[in-house]
Amino acid sequence: EVQLVQSGAEVKKPGESLKISCKGSGYSFTSYWIGWVRQMPGKGLEWMGIIYPGDSDTRYSPSFQGQVTISADKSISTAYLQWSSLKASDTAMYYCARHLEGGYCSSTSCYYNWFDPWGQGTLVTVSS
Amino acid sequence: SSELTQDPAVSVALGQTVRITCQGDSLRSYYASWYQQKPGQAPVLVIYGKNNRPSGIPDRFSGSSSGNTASLTITGAQAEDEADYYCNSRDSSGNHHVFGTGTKVTVL
Hints:
The structure holds two protein chains of two kinds. By secondary structure, chain A is mainly beta.
């Protein structure tokens, strides 16, 4: 069974650092991109960025570039999302999800793109 | 443009049909995927590609696309279909992904 298991809930103070994880199993971890998604309380899904664990190629949404760091350790099939200095506005649920693609593909992307499966989510609460 | 726009909310009578739309320039180049999210749960993929359903997703869910608009149709909506639905696609540059604004579906 393909599965992504995320680390547990975190409660932090503003200014603290944090690294949350997403461990893949049941598939070749280095062969698929892993994306990160933010969901603030009562709000919609926001795509943050994506990493290819095979070579650590990483793309960030312009909205999140410079605000977070995405990384991966392929030796333990785990992707990470980290903050160097948390803000109260980082309070949210964070999901990881495996990216798949298909259909006609150019050298850079394919017509069909989807995320499956998703991790169970990690709730990050930042409060003084 | 990197935006995908959805109607905030729609309602459907039990057993009837509802269509959820997603509009954006990038949909002229890329197909949308669709996700169902129930309260307190992670999103679940319901439609990908032209009109493909993952294993376990009922066949009352279907997808279509025309021009800059993608649609998710629930034919014969059930009480358990009440949820938030999000579309997703690459953006127009192809380098990033973007989610739609989300649609809350209420089954009456």
